[in-house]
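Lab notebook, bench 4. Still working through the backlog of constructs that have no structural model yet. Next entry is a single chain of 389 residues. Request: give me the structure tokens for it.
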Amino acid sequence: MDSSAAQRLFAAAERFVPRIRELAPRMRAERRLDDALVEDMECAGLFSVIVPKRWGGAGLGPHEANRLSEIIGSADTSTGWVSAFYMLHNWFLCKFAPSVQEELYAKRNSVRAPAVFGPPGSAERVNGGYRVTGRWPYGSGAWHASHALVPAMVGSAMHWFLMPRSDVELIDDWHMEAMSATGSVTIAANKVFVADDWHCDINRLVSADNYPSAGFHEDLVYRLPFTALLMVSLSPCLGGLDRAVELAREKLPRSMPLGIPRIERPAARIRWAEVYERARVLRLVRDNATEDAIRAGIACETPTPESEAKAQLHLVYFVHGIKDAMRQVIDGLGSSTYRKDDPIFRITQDVGVLATHAQGPDYDVVMDRHARGLLGLGAEQGDPQTKLT
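Model written out:
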């Protein structure tokens, strides 16, 4: 990996942190990111971290994308979330047919596109492609996108259809107490024509070697399975936890229940130290899980239900560990932390919402899926799980 390119991107992200923090209250109120901020972040190359060098990107890998997401998330979780998706979804776009990529990246080194996994819409076969209809919620990043990846069934396989932003309708229904600035609105399409090269089976797009442009790019990240990139979208949570630990440290001498500074109370110091260490351990969990997936990809190891379950369990443990640590922070600082404008309270709310992303629609269903994989029981009948390899 090009360490100098990575360091330039990290430094660029750090320069945006004060600006993002200043804009965050207004972006939450307006329920979307600031237009100029998004444009400037793209111009700085932050969304092109894993775009191939062929298209002017950095051609870097999962560790660098994780770190960038983490830095931006330390400024604002919503901004980190949308940025992580803009980074990550370029990986899918750069696996479409070369002719599609040439059009997408002709004048830019990154493409901003939400990608929705479900529910699937309908696809009617017509000459040269399909006409796609559907409504897809949770379109994070849709307001500032040039394209959208939306799912529909082709036979028994779920495909992603790549549509220009101008061909879809955005339904402004994102009214949330947390993660409000993501603007994760519903995307709707009515018989939008999508040419044949502009859609693909999702199972192929997440694979390491079975996608339409396999072998087209030399960058290592395009020879890895999706498991190597699982942590990118949730790394903003770790940045949020780091920020909360920093803010809690500043509060300890100022918070004075019964006139005694919390920093003089052993229990308060112990609680803070436990969360500090938890953040370090969770970073190790993320980085080791990512490195394991990279090594398996380089070695061309055949994935198994057990290996996929282990990768997913790392993801769930990572984000739920952050959620639990945030609860420990806020419980240790008293009622003042529950003020609406307190950044620790905001981070706690945001992480609580993002923890649901790791478990899909239902924690019990998803965890049982992973348990079945570990126990060798196979997928439950009718489980539509997308393989991550």
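Notes after review: Residues 3-110 form a domain with the Butyryl-Coa Dehydrogenase, subunit A; domain 1 fold (CATH 1.10.540.10). The mean pLDDT is 93. Flag for follow-up if needed.
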